Amino acid sequence: MSGPGLWHATAPPRERPAPSLARDVDADVVIVGGGFSGLWTAYHLLAGDPTLRVAVLEREVIGFGASGRNGGWLMAAAPADLRVWERRFGLASVQRAQRVLIEAVREVAALDAALGLGSDVRLGGAITMARSAAEQARLVDRRAAMTRWGWPAEDLTWLDPTEVQARLGAQATRGALQALPCGTLHPVRLVHGLAAAVQRMGGMLFEHTPASAISSGRVECGDLGTVRAPHVVLATEAFTIEQPGQGRRYLPLASTMIATEPLTGPAAEELSWRDGQAVGDARHLFFYAQHTPDGRIAIGGRGAPYRLGSGLSVAGDADPATTARLEQTLREVWPQTEGVAIEHRWSGSLAVPRDWCASCGVDRATGIGWLGGYAGHGVAATFVLARSLAAQLRGVPDPAGPQPWTLHRARGWEPEPLRWLASQAIVRVLGSADEVEQAGGTARRAHLVHRFTGS
Ligand SMILES: Cc1cc2nc3c(=O)[nH]c(=O)nc-3n(C[C@H](O)[C@H](O)[C@H](O)COP(=O)(O)OP(=O)(O)OC[C@H]3O[C@@H](n4cnc5c(N)ncnc54)[C@H](O)[C@@H]3O)c2cc1C
Q1: I need a labelling partner for 155 at 20 to 30 A (CA). Which of 31, 205, 240, 300 fits?
Q2: Pocket of ligand 1 contains residue 34 by CB under 6 Å
Q3: What CA–CA distance (Å, rounded) separates 116 from 104?
Q4: What is the pLDDT of residue 145?
Q5: For the whole prediction, is pTM greater than 0.85?
Q6: Whether residue 35 has its Cβ less than 6 Å from ligand 1
């Protein structure tokens, strides 16, 4: 079984799918999870020391989780609530972290070319539209905050409505904020390319290999075998909450996507933004979209709270109400897509830490390391956190220096049903705030959930 959605359906077959574990293996580092986090960690470990024995265990197939289901935005936005980082570590620390994340976008694009990852990276910038007065005001504030937190002012540009229409074919906006560098890619091509690169570097990959018991020095995989290693890494993002004792580590928030058939005729001519622009809006329940190289619009958004007791969006089935809202947004922003069929609908789970700040680290007593909690901002950030974690595992300095993501660990979420109620409140309050703002009003209740949302 491959993963759900457009990206798995349109990725070329892999040359070297990995086998299942079939015996006991000794390694220096065993990584649980074959997404961007696990594979970038393997990559950085092997790039730093090619003699290391690194094993990656994936329960399903490479890219089965969020790494194979996302919007493909390669963005420098921090996987964190920057107000939290600033309070804890100071403004200069946030500015350093932002520079590292901006550089990461260029590094991933450069590695894509150098390693032949084949992920269709196009750095066309991120363009966030305002579709109401409230969104426009938020973007003005956002631009000021981004500049303060270290984004070079010359890389942030305001586009007026005619420019937005000319460049994106988008109707009825009040303008947009463009941020460089940022771009889009094909997530499954990236995760497949990365897996092939790790295999070429000597990494041992095992698919269809669920880790059933994870402890200091060993990962047991039922009847398949055991991997023994002084270092164990948990790179399981939202799935982490299935591990014993980790249930409150993250809030699993679903994010959903739809993708059209390839555009043809007048729609294809009018929607000619094909340079890799990552396009979204500034609603509370914002959308994120890209125009794929094969001519589709892929658009996603949050809005489906997880089901109490059932947890994760494992199968990838998309919530009908959210897909209907996304389709409505698509037709509103780009009326030219009227009549264009929606071919793919899917979803995945985001891992949201209690403080909305991703982190990585190694417990020196057990040798168990972790990275994750990107809250929907992981395509570039996984590269950076994996590099920090690999440095910690190898006992060498992090090339990025001390960074907020290595310096803290969030406390757990409230027990159920409080966590579930929080997720319901987030989606409901933000959804109704958008409705009020779209009608020209002021949403007074949105601030009630900001304590939970990191916005
Ligand atoms: C719909 C959606 C849209 C998104 N859009 C964007 C975007 O446009 N830009 C952006 O920056 N970020 C985006 N994100 C977030 C980004 O995709 C993630 O932050 C990133 O992919 C996390 O990678 P990961 O490797 O940590 O986790 P995952 O990709 O989830 O990998 C974890 C892996 O662990 C495996 N696993 C779990 N348990 C076990 C076990 N017991 N044994 C073995 N293996 C196990 C899973 O099968 C899975 O493959 C989006 C996420 C979603 C869901």
Answers
A1: 300
A2: yes
A3: 17
A4: 96
A5: yes
A6: yes
